[in-house]
Amino acid sequence: MSEIKTDRAYTSDHEWAKTEGGVVRVGITAYAVEQLGDITLVNLDIAAGTALAAGKPFGTVESVKTLADLFSPISGTVVEVNLALIDKPELVNDDCYGGAWMIAIEPSQPSEVEGLLDAAAYGKLLAQ
Amino acid sequence: MVPFAGYEMPVQYEGVKQEHLAVRGAAGLFDVSHMGELLLDGDAAGAVIDELITNDASKLTDGRALYTCACNEAGTILDDLIVYRKARDRWLIVCNASNREKIAAHVAAAAKGRCDFEDASDRTALIALQGPRALEVAARAGGDGPALGELASFALREAELAGVTCTVARTGYTGEDGVEIFCAKGDAVALWRGLLAAGSELGLAPAGLAARDTLRLEARLSLYGNDIDETTNPLEAGLGWTVKLDKSRFLGKEALVAIKAAGLARKLVGFEMTGRGIARHGYPLLDESGRALGICTSGSPGPTVNRNIGLGYVKAGHAALGTKLLVDCRGKPIEAVVAATPFYKRPSR
């Protein structure tokens, strides 16, 4: 069973969203990383200051085998982009719940965060 | 495990990159039992095969094999094969799993009334042992293992290995030294376990189809269904060396003579990404000003060469080494350059 952190919310696309102060940090889950394998390229096609709607793509993660789109779990304004991943995509394999966060969003509709899966619900999804 | 051509296929064990590097650095063990094995027995077997393939089977002696294409009347590729002459009147063809039914029917029709034909795929397992330490692993597997190092490239022999009766060929699909081992289906597990145990101290690792794909791409070995198929001919695919137009006849010869005389409209080239992107099968290839040039047929990161590499067809005028290309990575044009292949060549040891 892939690691799931209880301190954050999840999407059915295997992303996590963690509220820290006024912003929500977004990354991909350990399950997603296991499915992708060795990650060799992270593209974050979005700049700080950009408005992003829930469900819209903001980048891609590519492994040796395949490619996955990244979708924003919530609506809001991008306040930070983790550019370190551009040069060190392998960070996603090493620390997907920590240093390999992808973007930070200031939510425009905080209720969207409430609507995401909690750790238990995400665990159930993986168990299916 | 994923289904492929009716088999449950091991795509990866510990991870593509790890398995890939294990094969380059030590040795890997692949279960490729999905490959098709066709047997032809009889005085006319060699002649039957020779009429169906582009390479020259008449040059083979007992215990030798060759790589070849089999083309249709139009000179495009039905499959790529390894043809083994076990004896003058006993031949083996190994074909791709995805083409097995087509090729079995094709060869059976040619053999009818001339020699015996059997599709032995369902009763035959195939295990590939590949890597710089592959022959050391074999040497520790008992039986004839220690003698296999004497087997020449593309030679084959009957042998006993790990207590299993098998046919061993010095062939592979990784760009490394190694052997491919045929045995009866019921003996495959014993052979697999015996080889894994023999290689445990030598760094032998089970390797899946995903690693097989990145290994063969670095070595520029064609993958049927990606780089070659019934819409491509061997000359444009860079497989002209398998086409012996001096043979008196073979299926597709007239078409290939005409294609060669007319000159190639496109060529399969290797390229490496110079911009940030990974080319994938099916991505369009463009010239520097964005005009269509062709299509990427294979692409991925190359774990050994540490570059993002690919193969693709481009218009003949854009095939020279160093030609700049753009790869349309899902709408984003990313820079690439035509590069020398194979991307990886094993060091001489």
Architecture overview:
The complex is a heterodimer of chains A (128) and B (349). Chain A starts with 8 loop residues before the first strand and ends with a helix. Chain A has helices spanning 30-36, 84-87, 91-94, 111-114, 119-127; strands at residues 9-10, 15-20, 23-28, 39-44, 51-52, 57-63, 67-71, 76-81, 103-107. In chain A, a hairpin with a 3-residue loop joins strand 6 and strand 7. In chain A, the strands form two sheets. Chain A has a six-stranded antiparallel beta sheet. In chain A, strands 4-6-7 form a three-stranded antiparallel beta sheet. By secondary structure, chain A is of the alpha+beta class. Chain A is globular, with a radius of gyration of 13 Å. Chain B is of the alpha+beta class. Chain B has a domain at 35-108 and 233-264: Aminomethyltransferase beta-barrel domains (Alpha-Beta Plaits). The interface between A and B is medium-sized, with 11 and 16 residues.
Radius of gyration of chain A: 13 Å
Might you state the CATH topology name of the domain at 35-108 and 233-264 in chain B?
Answer: Alpha-Beta Plaits
Low-confidence regions of chain B:
none
Distance between the termini of chain B: 35 Å
Mean pLDDT of chain A: 95
Strand content of chain A: 35-45%
Query: Tell me about the biggest sheet of chain A?
Result: 6 strands, antiparallel
How would you summarize the topology of this molecule?
The complex is a heterodimer of chains A (128) and B (349).
Chain A: E1 9-10, E2 15-20, E3 23-28, H1 30-36, E4 39-44, E5 51-52, E6 57-63, E7 67-71, E8 76-81, H2 84-87, H3 91-94, E9 103-107, H4 111-114, H5 119-127
Chain B: E1 2-4, E2 7-9, H1 16-25, E3 27-31, E4 36-41, H2 45-50, E5 64-71, E6 77-87, E7 90-95, H3 100-111, E8 116-119, E9 124-130, H4 134-139, E10 156-161, E11 164-169, E12 178-184, H5 188-198, E13 204-206, H6 209-218, H7 253-262, E14 266-273, E15 284-286, E16 292-302, E17 307-315, E18 324-329, E19 332-339
Parallel strand pairs in B: 3-13
Antiparallel strand pairs in B: 1-2, 3-9, 4-7, 4-8, 5-6, 6-7, 9-12, 10-11, 11-12, 14-17, 14-19, 15-16, 15-18, 16-17, 18-19
